[in-house]
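Repro:
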Amino acid sequence: QVQLVESGGGLVQPGGSLRLSCAASGSIFSIVAMGWYRQAPGKERELVAVITSGGTTNYVDSVKGRFTISRDNAKNTVYLQMNSLKPEDTGVYYCNLRFQPVPWGQGTQVTVSS
């Protein structure tokens, strides 16, 4: 079964940048769409970015122009480059298969605060 390990979170000031990584085990990684999700304090988990197996990307409106999702199939890894971070980007970030979700990883905490 696919297992997911997120990393790269931290504390950053507004306007700063972070790059998140999600390492996936399993041989199906290269043929599935992947998503980055976040869960803000007191809120439900939401999908923020998707990348298909072919590299097509899509974003929730609130992060368009600031976040970039990418993938390296040779490394079974998906990335989320986050620029111009805002306090409302604070939350725990998770990755998962977009259409065949597997058990969630531990996530990585992103805190945007001055």
